[in-house]
């Protein structure tokens, strides 16, 4: 496709001003998340001149032998490894600006003394101006520590805001493991923090293509008039991965595909697809409309779950070009595990826009292809025009928002095959991000961290949205736990279990092909 805008002029990051003065405190700085994602994201923010000049990063960890120099070396290695993997060169100056702002604080997160020392360090930091700038606390720790750390931050006075001395907390996932625990965590947090201080992360919202769903829907006039039950037959949302559980068996066993992916990532995609237009891009305008959409999803009642949801686990096979053992043979997994690695469901949304339009969701590990997409199938054209021709059926019109990989948008429709006969064949028009824009290698966390620094919570989850997601998922979790839905299996590297096909039986088409 032809480029009609200069990619350089449309890149938001190049236009945004640096974040205001702040200190970023990372709890769990020696962990995997901090190395794999946060460090590369901060490095990118430094390269794009989006970190303030007046910036400090305090990494809190339990390693008593740890020093500031050792942490700097460690994070340098992580940043370099990421740049090498992306084949993106390494901007030494940008990294040194960031590395020079890093310091290490040793401390047990369940010990009050750690927070007293942290308060001192913040105070001393940034040339003694610490207390007058913002402080962003990032909880890159196990979910069991979210409540305890937040309570201690508040008890140490670290959550108190005054003037431009804002205090914000980023809470990682998983946010609860069911409805009751999510509600309890929200209560614990909101006893000591104001909702406006809480940034609940869902890294899917950091993806450009996910943010583009709203831009595409509400920044263009052409699809919105037909974005409803009069014109849409159904919606398929797929998040397919080729990887198995890898080394995460211990985390995954009590979690499973439903908890791991649905109330958060898949429901974000569903909410952005189904929401009404917000009155502005202000955080609460957007989050309010997403909340409405999720609250309108009809929770499946006990008996309906078996008819509308499928769960399955992978057997041994070849996926992503690699031989994978059966899930039950993965490290940290019980040999008789009944944890699902795949889940699919049919949901309905009870509102005027969507009544009668099924939303089919599926996600799984060890599948044939890595593919995250939202596919909208429009209603078929009536056949009358083609009576007496060779055309047996009209081609379905699909609009596909390809979230990853091969980020883009495609529109599929039927076109006349050249020749004397009237014959239709499916054709595709495609927009690809890589062709149009100068896409920069990023982790998706850049936007999220920057937004938290500037106080924009649009891309973060609100307490009620989190709970609305769990409300839909809870009856399915209960039915799975009661074995009311049999555990199917599928070979690694396939498109999933055959049982999932039955969900679409009334639709006159199957799942979009994965293999
Ligand atoms: C995480 C899940 O939240 O999202 C993982 O815990 C999953 O199991 C991952 O693999 C998928 O994210 P992405 O960005 O790789 O599509």
UniProtKB/TrEMBL annotation:
What family is it from? Answer: Belongs to the glucose-6-phosphate dehydrogenase family.
UniProt-listed Enzyme Commission number(s):
1.1.1.49
Quickly give the catalysed reaction: D-glucose 6-phosphate + NADP(+) = 6-phospho-D-glucono-1,5-lactone + NADPH + H(+)
**Organism (species):** Salinarimonas soli
Write out the pathway annotation from the protein's UniProt entry.
Answer: Carbohydrate degradation; pentose phosphate pathway; D-ribulose 5-phosphate from D-glucose 6-phosphate (oxidative stage): step 1/3
The molecular function terms in GO held by this entry are: glucose-6-phosphate dehydrogenase activity; NADP binding
Binding, NADP(+): 62, 108-109, 173
UniProt protein name: Glucose-6-phosphate 1-dehydrogenase
Q: Cellular component per GO?
A: cytosol
Keyword annotations for this protein, in alphabetical order, are: Carbohydrate metabolism, Glucose metabolism, NADP, Oxidoreductase
Oxidoreductase as UniProt keyword: yes
Q: In the UniProt record, does the keyword Cytoplasm occur?
A: no
Known role: Catalyzes the oxidation of glucose 6-phosphate to 6-phosphogluconolactone.
């Amino acid at each position: 496709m032809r480029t009609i805008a200069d990619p350089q002029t449309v890149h938001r990051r190049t236009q945004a001003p640096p974040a205001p003065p702040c200190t970023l405190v990372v709890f769990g700085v020696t962990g995997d998340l901090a190395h794999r994602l946060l460090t590369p994201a901060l490095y990118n923010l430094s390269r794009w001149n989006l970190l303030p000049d007046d910036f400090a990063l305090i990494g809190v960890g339990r390693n008593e032998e740890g020093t500031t120099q050792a942490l700097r070396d460690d994070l340098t290695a992580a940043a370099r490894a990421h740049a090498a993997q992306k084949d993106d060169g390494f901007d030494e100056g940008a990294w040194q600006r960031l590395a020079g702002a890093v310091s290490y604080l040793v401390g047990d997160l369940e010990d009050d003394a750690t927070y007293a020392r942290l308060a001192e360090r913040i105070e001393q930091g940034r040339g003694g101006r610490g207390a007058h700038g913002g402080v962003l606390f990032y909880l890159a720790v196990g979910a069991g520590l979210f409540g305890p750390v937040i309570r201690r931050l508040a008890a140490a006075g670290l959550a108190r805001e005054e003037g431009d001395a804002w205090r914000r907390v980023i809470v990682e996932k998983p946010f609860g493991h069911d409805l009751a625990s999510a509600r309890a965590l929200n209560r614990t947090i909101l006893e000591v923090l104001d909702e406006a201080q809480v940034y609940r992360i869902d890294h899917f919202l950091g993806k450009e293509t996910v943010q583009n769903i709203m831009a595409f829907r509400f920044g263009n006039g052409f699809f919105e008039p037909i974005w409803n039950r009069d014109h849409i037959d159904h919606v398929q949302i797929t998040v397919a991965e080729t990887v198995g559980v890898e080394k995460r068996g211990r985390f995954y066993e009590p979690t499973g595909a439903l908890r791991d992916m649905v109330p958060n990532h898949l429901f974000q995609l569903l909410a952005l697809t189904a929401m009404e237009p917000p009155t502005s891009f202000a955080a609460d305008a957007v989050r309010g409309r997403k909340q409405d959409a999720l609250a309108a999803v009809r929770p499946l009642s006990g008996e309906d779950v078996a008819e509308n949801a499928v769960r399955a686990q992978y057997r041994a096979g070849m996926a992503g070009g690699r031989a994978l053992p059966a899930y039950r043979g993965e490290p940290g997994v019980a040999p008789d595990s009944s944890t699902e690695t795949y889940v699919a469901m049919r949901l309905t949304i009870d509102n005027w826009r969507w009544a009668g339009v099924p939303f089919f969701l599926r996600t799984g590990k060890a599948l044939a292809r890595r593919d995250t997409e939202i596919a909208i199938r429009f209603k078929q054209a009536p056949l009358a025009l083609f009576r007496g021709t060779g055309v047996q059926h009209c081609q379905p019109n699909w609009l596909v928002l390809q979230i990853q990989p091969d980020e883009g948008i495609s529109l599929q429709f039927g076109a006349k095959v050249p020749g004397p006969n009237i014959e239709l064949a499916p054709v595709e028009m495609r927009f690809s991000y890589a062709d149009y824009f100068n896409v920069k290698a990023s982790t998706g966390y850049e936007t999220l961290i920057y937004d938290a620094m500037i106080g924009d919570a649009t891309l973060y989850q609100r307490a009620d949205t989190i709970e609305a997601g769990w409300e839909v998922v809870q009856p399915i979790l209960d039915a799975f736990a009661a074995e009311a839905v049999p555990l199917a299996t599928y070979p690694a590297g396939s498109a999933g279990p055959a049982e999932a096909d039955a969900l679409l039986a009334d639709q006159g088409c199957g799942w979009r092909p994965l293999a």
